[in-house]
Amino acid sequence: MNNFNYHMGIWTKDQTNKGWLTSILELGAWVGTIYSGFLAEIFSRKYAILMNTVVFIIGVVIQATAVTSAGHSSILAGRFITGMGVGSLSMIVPMYNAECAPPEVRGALVGLQQLAITTGIMFSFWIDYGTNYIGGTGDTQVEAAWLVPLCLQLAPALLLGGGILFSKLIIKSSSGWLLMNLPVPFSPRLLEHHGREAEARKTLASLRGLSQDHELIELEYAEIKAQSLFEKRTVAEHFPALADGSASSTIKLQFVAVASLFKSKPMLRRVGLATVTMFFQQWTGINAILYYAPQIFQGLGLGGNTISLLATGVVGIVMWLATFPAVMYVDKIGRKPILVSGAIGMGVCHLIVAGIMASFQHDWPAHVGAGWAAVVMVWIFVIFFGYSWGPCAWIIIAEIWPISQRPYGIALGASSNWMNNFIVGQVTPDMFTGITYGTFILFGILILMGGAFIWFFFPETKGLSLEEMDVLFGSVGVAAADAERMREINREVGLDNAVRHGSIAAGIEKGGLDEKADRMDSE
Question: Where are the membrane-spanning stretches (predicted)?
Answer without folding.
Answer: 20-40, 47-70, 76-96, 108-127, 147-171, 271-294, 306-330, 337-360, 372-396, 434-458
